[in-house]
Amino acid sequence: MIADLAKASSLQDLLAAEAARFTAEHPRSVAMAGQAAQVWRGGAPMHWMNDWASPSPIFAAQGVGAQITDVDGKLYDDFCLGDTPSMFGHGDAAVAAAVSDQVKRGAGFMLPTATSVIVGRLLAERFGLPLWQTATTASDANRAAIRWARAVTGRPVILIFDGCYHGMVEDAFVVLGEGGAIMKPGLLGQVHDLTATTRVIPFNDLAALQAALAPGDVAAVLAEPVMTNCGMILPEPGFHDALRSLTRDAGTLLILDETHTLSSGPGGYVGLHGLEPDMFVVGKAIAGGVPAAVWGVTAELSGRMDEAQARTGPGQSGIGTTLSGNALALAAMRAMLTEVMTAEAYGRMLVGAQRLVAGLQAVIAARGLPWSVAHVGARVELVFADPLPKNAAEMRKALDHDLLAALHLWLINRGVLIAPFHNMMLVSPVTEDPAIDRLVAAVDGFAGEIEGLSA
User: Fold this and answer.
1) pLDDT of residue 395
2) What does this protein need as cofactor (predicted)?
3) Which of 129-138, 200-209, 310-319 has the lowest mean pLDDT?
């Protein structure tokens, strides 16, 4: 592969040159990074902000639509969009007005508001599940779903797919190693062996799924409809039908986490494909960047939850946080569900994503690259493999970290931001065609540069 030929020497030279260019062109960001290091551990308010390929973080000044301006006055076409919270664009007027109005009247009361009734109805209409709860992040929502699944079924085990990520959820930090299930390398501060109550199998492997469910101890399967956190891995035809059938036969609940696949359409991937989860989780974009998440359940499951709670009796459930369901978040959700996440907005996103997919595929074809493009809804991924991997083990072989870093830094220096994690790209309804074309041209330029370096 091109990466194998270049990464030992020439690719490192390219990385060094691009790093020097970044430092020279971003003096204020570099200076602010030095100041931040004196007050923020690791030099940023949250350590993920250091995960970009740039030698120091880019300090943002403002975001408008699908573009960001940094403190050095540089303008970027933004295909990261906050890693999804700003999927519908930065600074949306409807969300800004709703949040401004609500904060003047109080951000949170530990009481429901009239808006909460409206938001609940909107969620039920949009996603099909009748009963809902809020959380502050999708991590919190997934934790709640797992806890309820165990309480309802009386079973201890959660089943996940290798390579998944469902937020800061301890149960999901298990992967397949050479000898079977292991806790993710680098997992900090974990004192209990998560593999005792988490079972992990490859995505798209129905035989492994059937075997994992056979002991009858699995409370729930927690899954994204399309895996998006280990590179994008698409479900094979018939996989979701079999997943639903096998979990029902085993008495196992199905939790679908749509935090990323919400880009599929107004009802998410679930609505677009008619899936039938017992629990549905979505965070990030649901409140336009205001920290919030929601999770819905079927009426049948809600009844079982009531029974489980009655058996337990009064006292703290251990589920929920004070900020969950606050008035500010609900006001933002109402604006998103009524004014922003419209069918028309999704139509523009999907057309833009198709333009991006076609452009990237044209680059791959013209240059004869051993790469491919995956996409779900408005989310697109450039994968350094062909054909597309079917599971995490195959995808890990394609994640050439030096090549990823070089591409990301190349794009940053040419005014394009994509998510810092593998090659995720997200198209918003306000992303303009010239921005998509600039991204494609930048990828093409990078491919040409790599070809030149390896010659």
Assistant:
1) 97
2) pyridoxal 5'-phosphate
3) 310-319
d(CA 106, CA 327): 7
SS3 readout for 23-73: HHHCHHHHHHHHHHCCCCHHHCCCHHHHCCCCCCCCCEEEEEECEEEECCC
Q: What domains appear along the chain, each with residue ranges and CATH number?
A: 2-88+342-454 (3.90.1150.10), 93-340 (3.40.640.10)
Helix (H) or strand (E) holding 372: strand 372-376
Distance CA 372, CA 407 (A): 15
Q: Are 75 and 272 in contact (CB under 8 A)?
A: no
Average pLDDT (17-39) is 97
pTM of the model: 0.95
The rounded distance, in Å, linking the Cα atoms of 24 and 30 is: 9
Sign of CA dihedral 151, 155, 161, 167: positive
Query: pLDDT tens digit string along 282-293?
Result: 999 999 999 999
CA gyration radius for the chain? 22
Pairing type for strands 75-79 and 131-135 reads unpaired
> How far apart, in Å, are the Cα atoms of 36 and each of 59, 67, 115?
10, 24, 39
